[in-house]
Amino acid sequence: MKKYNAGFVGARIALSRDNKTALSKYAARPGRRALPAVFICFLFLTGCVNVENFPTPTLPENPSPTVTEPYLPINPSPIDPPVIPSPDFPTPSVSVVTPDWTQNGLTVESLTYQHDFTDGDVVRLPAYGTFPQTGNADIDAYYQRCRDDFERKCGELAEDAGEDAAVYQSTSDYFVECNAGGVLSVSRTVHTNTGGAHGMTVVICETFSADTGLLLTLDDFFSVGRETYTPRLLETVMGLIDANPDLYWGDAKNLAEDFFPYDSFCVTENGVSLLFQEYTLGSYTAGIVRVDVPIEKISDIFILPSKN
After folding, report:
1. Of 160, 100, 153, nearest to 124 (Cα)?
2. Helix, strand or coil for residue 281?
3. Which end of the chain is more exposed for a tag (fewer CB within 10 A), N or C?
4. What are the start-end ranges of the H helices in 206-304?
């Protein structure tokens, strides 16, 4: 079916019904008779034109878009940030004094005591003890008193033995822990057996100034007070207890604090040794507990009193 444009349809409507009368009147006017004919021909021609006869305009096909690589910015060479000088704050430093462990001029020899306490022909208590002699008058006088005290106590034990079938025994020996750096540190081991399942052992420690012969305290070896150095020393004690929990009492840590051995210590070239007597931290099996605190752990607060 052919398609006609709106001009042809409009012409047919214009010629229908009353429009024909209006057209005839218009055509009857002089000088205008030719116009209707031209108009009708124009409408007829435009209405009879088949739109299909006109070629459909073709548009150029859009070319396929060219796919290009995405834009990659060029990475610039890294630029080191500007160096901003730090403010001149003082760097905190820890003053560490390296101990001078030069050997002392003291030569230690032994003062020996030996005596058998008897009841008739029966030996009730053999006693044997050795004590250091150094050439320093004050130190030697101190150990002479220790020798006399040992003899007195052995006599008392011999009297207590009486008719007991068991033989009592008492010994005393010493060990030089340090003889350098102006310090003479000695540990004495006193063992007494009164016939029980086992004897009793006590370690007595003395530390002297090799220059003055005076007894030194633990406080003398630290540049800080007890409230500071005691926790530092206890760190090693607690570590020893933690490493052997079955060897010590359950409250051994509290006991170590309550019975801290301020008067039972030795100084060595390797540090400070603390000695807890028998039954202090554990049973007889634990024995005398010796805790060696390395000097590296306390080097910032440890001092040699005779050198400062």
Report:
1. 160
2. coil
3. N
4. 226-243, 252-258
Q: Angle of helix 34-47 relative to helix 6-15, nearest 10 degrees?
A: 140
Look up residue 130 and give its two tokens.
């050795």
> Burial code of 31-69, b = ≥16 C-beta within 10 A, e = fewer?
eeeeeeeeeeeebeeebebeeeeeeeeeeeeeeeeeeee
Amino acid at 154: C
Report how far residue 189's alpha carbon sits from residue 138's, in angstroms, rounded to the nearest whole number. 21
Confidence of residue 39 (pLDDT cuts 50, 70, 90): low
Under a CB-based contact definition with an 8 Å cutoff, are residues 275 and 288 in contact? Answer: yes
Sign of CA dihedral 255, 259, 262, 268: negative
In the prediction, which pLDDT does 301 show?
97
How many C-beta atoms lie closer than 10 Å to residue 305's C-beta?
20
| Cα separation values, 251 from 27, 168, 240, 247, Å | 137, 34, 14, 12
Instruction: List the alpha helices (DSSP H) in 110-244.
Output: 137-161, 226-243
Phi-psi group of 303: left, alpha or beta (phi > 0 → left; psi -120 to 50 → alpha; rest → beta): beta
Coil, strand or helix at 125: strand
**Tens digits of residue pLDDT in 148-169:** 999 999 999 888 877 666 778 9
Q: How far apart are CA 242 and CA 253, in angstroms?
A: 9
- The length of the chain, given as a count of residues: 308
Instruction: Give the helix/strand (H/E) hosting 50.
Output: none
The model's pTM is 0.68
Query: pLDDT grade, residue 26 (50/70/90)?
Result: very low
Residue indicated by tokens 């021909």: 41
Pairing, β 122-133 against β 169-180:
parallel
> Taking Cα atoms as reference points, which of 289, 267, 153, 167 lies closest to residue 217?
267
Residue 182, phi then psi, degrees to nearest 5: 75, 15
Q: Which residues contact 224 (CB under 8 A, 6 or more apart)?
A: 301
